[in-house]
Amino acid sequence: DSTEANSRRGEERRRGEARMRGGGGGMMDDGGVEHAQIPNSFGHELRACLRCRLVKTYDQFRENGCENCPFLDMDKDRDNVVSCTTANFTGIISLMDPNRSWAARWLRIGRFIPGCYTLAVSEELPEEYQGMCQDNNVQYFPPKRP
């Protein structure tokens, strides 16, 4: 039915426009996150998660946490945002389909949700939070040392 197809295309366009505005992460029908928030500013307030390297603004991490690392509770405790993110990172890559991206596999971020990621962070996740990763059966790869 062409009316149903037009309605579906309109909904897809609205979701795409919301993503471009950097709104909240998209939600799937089952309540899971479809994509991470897109940074709504590209200034000095950008930060990268030390575990998954997702890039958002400080305020976005504070308000919504990290979509890949909800167990770090960044949305519940501002100190966790400071401890688990860094403003010291190199480059940004935007991933639309991490499962199929050779770059995502090369960067070890192929299992994360679509979003903006840094190429590299130079700081390690504090030991206390590395323990939280282990407790949640989540892998953590420390940054490579030159």
TrEMBL record:
<dbReference type="GO" id="GO:0006355">
    <property type="term" value="P:regulation of DNA-templated transcription"/>
</dbReference>
<dbReference type="GO" id="GO:0140673">
    <property type="term" value="P:transcription elongation-coupled chromatin remodeling"/>
</dbReference>
<dbReference type="InterPro" id="IPR022800">
    <property type="entry name" value="Spt4/RpoE2_Znf"/>
</dbReference>
<dbReference type="InterPro" id="IPR038510">
    <property type="entry name" value="Spt4_sf"/>
</dbReference>
<feature type="domain" description="Spt4/RpoE2 zinc finger">
    <location>
        <begin position="46"/>
        <end position="122"/>
    </location>
</feature>
<protein>
    <recommendedName>
        <fullName>Spt4/RpoE2 zinc finger domain-containing protein</fullName>
    </recommendedName>
</protein>
<feature type="compositionally biased region" description="Basic and acidic residues">
    <location>
        <begin position="1"/>
        <end position="20"/>
    </location>
</feature>
<keyword id="KW-0539">Nucleus</keyword>
<comment type="similarity">
    <text>Belongs to the SPT4 family.</text>
</comment>
<dbReference type="GO" id="GO:0008270">
    <property type="term" value="F:zinc ion binding"/>
</dbReference>
<keyword id="KW-0804">Transcription</keyword>
<dbReference type="GO" id="GO:0000993">
    <property type="term" value="F:RNA polymerase II complex binding"/>
</dbReference>
<dbReference type="InterPro" id="IPR009287">
    <property type="entry name" value="Spt4"/>
</dbReference>
<dbReference type="InterPro" id="IPR029040">
    <property type="entry name" value="RPABC4/Spt4"/>
</dbReference>
<dbReference type="GO" id="GO:0032044">
    <property type="term" value="C:DSIF complex"/>
</dbReference>
<feature type="region of interest" description="Disordered">
    <location>
        <begin position="1"/>
        <end position="29"/>
    </location>
</feature>
<dbReference type="Pfam" id="PF06093">
    <property type="entry name" value="Spt4"/>
</dbReference>
